[in-house]
Design goal:
The protein is mainly beta.
Length: 75
């Protein structure tokens, strides 16, 4: 049997923590917290090739937006 749906019903504090999600898994945006929050020193990567094409990072004091792909960053 394959587990295809996970929800927080019956989970303490209505949260699921420390879960491994396959790299090609789809997460429905309407199910995410708004705003989506990460602790300091955690990098968010967007894109489909390995580590992604765009990184957003905060290190306790500074914030970074970095284009790591072959295109360019447009602000």
């Amino acid at each position: 049997m394959t587990l295809t749906t996970v929800n927080s019903d019956g989970v303490k504090d209505d949260s699921i923590k420390n879960i491994d999600i396959k790299s090609d898994a789809a997460i429905e945006a309407s199910k995410l917290d708004n705003p989506l929050q990460f602790p300091d020193a955690h990098k968010v990567s967007f894109g489909t090739d390995g580590t992604g094409d765009l990184e957003i990072y905060h290190d306790n004091s500074n914030s970074y937006v970095k284009d790591t792909g072959t295109g360019m960053l447009r602000l």
